[in-house]
Structures are given as structure tokens and as C-alpha cells.
Write a structure and sequence with these properties.
The chain is α/β, with parallel strands linked by helices and about 210 residues long. The protein contains 9 helices and 5 strands; from the N terminus they run ααααβαβαβαβαβα. It starts with a helix and ends with a helix. It binds cobalamin.
């Protein structure tokens, strides 16, 4: 097994120590940081995303794999920066005002980070003004919004109204259990995803 396959497989197994050891070996073997990221860490996280979507693994497995991913990225970050590797896109994300649910958003962050996106996470209970301010400052490619309560779906609608009335041009993607394609169309969101894995696929197409 080569180092890259080993990194991917150890990431899938959630073994942080083995992931970092294999990355160190790959670095010693002169494999470029971007190759280690794409063919090792991201390849492993893609498998996690697919298996999660298929219901073969569950939230704790994803969180454990994410811990291994973060350990690996921490090791690679200085080298990626030195090599001038740019993220594939920037996602600004938050759970809308009134809503404190963030497990789904965490999974979205993990899979987007796993796909090479830079994430700016505004946290939970995020008011429209904060989305607007951050969008102007950060100039993201995508703005992600999550809502788990039927009551906070209305806040999503007013957030989008305010963003659309502004100079912000980012693609808006929404998600969360009570949302739907129909709802997304009604509130003028660009994209809706039923799952974090679907969201990543749509986002990749949007920035391509
Ligand atoms: C865990 C949980 C909590 C935890 C939240 C902990 C946390 N840190 O998130 C706690 C205990 C705090 C909580 C509190 C409350 N909860 Co609650 N909670 C849940 C529960 C059990 C699971 C939600 C969850 O995490 N699901 C797992 C994740 C992975 O799924 P997900 O969020 O849908 O995300 C996936 C997709 O939707 C998508 N996605 C999500 N967001 C986004 C965003 C983007 C951009 C994209 C692309 C994709 C995407 O990707 C994810 C992965 O594929 C649900 C019931 C249920 N079984 O769903 C109730 C539920 C959501 N809660 C509910 C309620 C009522 C409450 C409370 C009001 C309870 C109370 N009386 O205090 C409070 C509200 C607090 C608040 N202001 O937000 C109701 C909502 C009912 C409704 N119709 O509005 C539910 C449905 C339970 C029920 N059947 O009554 N809750």
C-alpha cells in the first residue's frame, strides 16, 4: 500500500495518529502537500461522505474521521501555504437566528473542508446583519444557512431577502431537516441540499 492510500484508509478508520504518521512519511518521501491533501485526506473524506449518505456509517464515525482530517490538515497547512495552494472556494456558513442546532452544520463544514473549501463559520443563532457584514468582509463564493426549526425557516427567508437587497453576489445554499427544494425556490435561495454530501457536490459545481 502506498502512503496516499494509507492516509485515506487511516482517515476512514478515524485513526489520527496513523494519519499523521503516514503524512510525515509521505512528506519525507517528497510527495507534494497538495497531492497528500487531494489523494490522501480528501480521497478518504469523500469515502466517508459517500458512506454517510448511504447510511452505512453514522454521525460519530464522521466526527471521528473529521478529527483525523483536522490533525492531518494541521500538519499540511504550512506546506500548502508555502506552495501557494488555494482552497477550491470559500463557504460562509451559519445556523440562522433563533436556532441553536449545529450538528448538521458541523457535518456540512467537515465535508466541505474535506472537499478543499475554506470555511468561515459564524456559529449558531446568526442574525441577518451578521451574515451581511461577514459576506461583505469575507467575500465568500457561497453562503450556507442551516435551520432545524420550522419557526426559524422564516428567519432564513428574511436573511436571504436582506442579502439579495445588498451588493452581495455569493451563491446561497440552504439546508436543514425542515427545508426543501420547494422552500428554497420560494425564499429565493440558489441551492438546496438534503444532505451535507449533496451540498458539497452542488457547491463544487457552483464554483467550477
Ligand atoms: C439534537 C437536537 C437538539 C439539540 C441540538 C444540539 C446541537 N448542538 O445541535 C438540543 C437539545 C439543544 C435541541 C434543542 C431544541 N430542539 Co431539537 N432536535 C434535535 C434532534 C434530536 C436532532 C437534530 C440533528 O442534529 N439531526 C442530525 C443532523 C445531522 O441532521 P440535520 O441537522 O438535518 O443536517 C443534515 C441535513 O439537513 C443537511 N444540512 C443541515 N444544515 C445544512 C446547511 C446547508 C448549507 C446544507 C447544504 C446542508 C445542511 O446536512 C446534514 C447532514 O447531512 C431533532 C430531531 C431529529 N431527529 O431530527 C430535534 C428537533 C430539530 N428539535 C426540535 C425542537 C422543538 C427543539 C427545541 C425547541 C426544544 C425545546 N422545547 O427546547 C430546542 C430549540 C433550541 C433552539 N433554539 O434551537 C424539533 C423541531 C420541530 C420543528 N418542527 O420545528 C425537532 C425536530 C424534534 C421534534 N421532533 O420535535 N435539539
Amino acid at each position: 500500500m502506498n502512503e496516499l492510500t494509507e492516509i485515506a484508509q487511516k482517515l476512514e478508520a478515524g485513526d489520527s495518529q496513523a494519519v499523521t504518521a503516514a503524512i510525515e512519511q509521505a512528506i519525507t518521501g517528497q510527495i507534494p502537500a497538495a497531492t497528500i491533501l487531494n489523494e490522501g485526506l480528501i480521497a478518504g473524506m469523500n469515502v466517508i461522505g459517500r458512506r454517510f449518505k448511504a447510511g452505512e456509517i453514522f454521525i460519530p464515525n464522521v466526527l471521528i474521521a473529521a478529527r483525523a482530517m483536522n490533525a492531518g490538515i494541521a500538519l499540511l497547512e504550512p506546506r500548502l501555504a508555502a506552495d501557494g495552494i488555494k482552497p477550491v472556494g470559500k463557504l460562509l456558513i451559519g445556523t440562522v437566528q433563533g436556532d441553536l442546532h449545529d450538528i448538521g452544520k458541523t457535518l456540512v463544514n467537515i465535508l466541505f473542508k474535506g472537499a478543499g473549501f475554506e470555511i468561515i463559520d459564524l456559529g449558531v443563532n446568526v442574525p441577518a446583519e451578521k451574515f451581511l457584514q461577514a459576506a461583505r468582509a469575507e467575500k465568500p463564493d457561497l453562503i450556507g444557512m442551516s435551520a432545524l426549526l420550522t419557526t426559524t425557516m422564516l428567519n432564513m427567508e428574511s436573511c436571504i431577502r436582506q442579502l439579495r437587497a445588498s451588493d452581495v453576489t455569493a451563491t446561497i445554499i440552504i439546508g436543514g431537516a425542515p427545508t426543501s427544494q420547494k422552500f428554497a425556490a420560494k425564499i429565493n435561495a440558489d441551492l438546496w441540499a438534503a444532505s451535507a454530501a449533496d451540498g458539497v457536490e452542488l457547491a463544487k459545481q457552483a464554483v467550477a
